[in-house]
Design brief:
Belongs to the enoyl-CoA hydratase/isomerase family. With 268 residues, the protein is of the alpha/beta class. It has one domain (9-194, 209-259): 2-enoyl-CoA Hydratase, Chain A, domain 1, CATH 3.90.226.10. It has helices at 33-48, 70-74, 92-103, 119-125, 153-161, 163-172, 178-184, 196-209, 212-244, 248-259, and strands spanning 9-14, 17-22, 54-59, 108-112, 116-117, 129-133, 137-139, 176-177, 189-191. It has a six-stranded mixed β-sheet with strand order 1-2-3-4-6-9, with helices on both faces. Strands 5-7-8 form a three-stranded mixed β-sheet. Helix 5 (153-161) packs across helix 6 (163-172) and helix 5 (153-161) packs across helix 9 (212-244). The longest helix has 33 residues, at 212-244. The radius of gyration is 18 Å and the shape is globular.
């Protein structure tokens, strides 16, 4: 299969293993509109590629993914959710992306070598097995910019660490490192940064070489439960996120981010 049309992803297939790499290192692998679209399409392409039995998700540069473009939000009128080139940041994009990941029956291993924030954390945590650097920082800080975690964080964090731990991290927006993430069950493995690529690839290759239909059937079975949770929670969290785009607290948060100061929230 030809993957040359992808702009934000680099895809290499070898020995039944597809390595899908975030390829916007100069932007911290932040997820713009084009990147979002590609993160929907790639999982369908992976399913259709007969040469692929397993997938390794990785990233170039210092960061795994810094999430969305907060600075760009500061330049929009209040409540405006348009992205670059005036494209609407339709909330359904996240639903399509996460459903595509869950529908992909081929196992996905994620190598989190650096900071993994916001939507980047959601993508990573929706994979099947995560290998994180002990020092990589992981967070969903939507609240820091006055928003609800509407793009999947409110779904996956409680499933991995329980509702109360998830609520604390999501309501405070605090970061935790890979060691702590492993301790509480947010990621599968935490190792020194230079060991992340090797361990993640070893696990992914083991799955690529394993009993294909047994592995896919196991993932499919567990993901039935995950899909139910996604359908139960995502509509509410997305709707709440859209509401918070229209608040003064959100506008103040993104202004403060752009001006490199502490925000002064007013509660509306």
């Amino acid at each position: 299969m030809d993957y040359s049309h992808y702009q934000c992803l680099e895809i290499v297939v070898e020995n039944k293993l597809a390595t899908v790499t975030f390829n916007r290192p100069e932007q911290g692998n932040s997820i713009n509109h084009q990147f979002h679209i590609e993160l929907i399409q790639v999982w369908q392409d992976m399913m259709e590629d007969g040469e692929v039995n397993a997938i390794l998700l990785a990233a170039k540069g210092k960061y795994f993914c810094v999430g969305g473009d907060v600075k760009g939000m500061a330049e929009r009128p209040m409540g405006d959710v348009r992205g670059e080139n005036d494209k609407i940041l339709w909330p359904g994009l996240s639903r399509h992306m996460l459903n595509a990941m869950l529908e992909c029956e081929k196992p996905i291993v994620c190598a989190i070598h650096g900071d993994c924030i916001g939507l980047g954390a959601t993508v990573a945590l929706f994979t099947d097995i995560t290998v994180a650097s002990e020092t990589a920082r992981i967070a969903d800080p939507h609240v820091k910019i006055g928003l609800v975690a509407g793009d999947g964080g409110a779904v996956i964090w409680p499933l991995l660490v329980g509702p109360n731990r998830a609520k604390e991290y999501l309501m405070r927006g605090n970061r935790l490192n890979g060691r702590e993430a492993e301790r509480i069950g947010l990621v599968n493995h935490a190792v020194p940064a230079d060991e992340v690529p090797k361990l993640a690839r070893e696990i992914a290759q083991e799955l690529a070489d394993g009993p294909t239909w047994a592995i896919r059937g196991t993932k499919y079975s567990v993901n039935k439960w995950l899909k139910d949770q996604l359908n139960t929670i995502l509509d509410a969290s997305t709707a709440m996120e859209m509401v918070t785009f229209h608040t003064e607290d959100h506008r103040e948060a993104v202004r403060a981010f752009a001006e490199k100061r502490k925000p002064k929230f007013v509660g509306y």
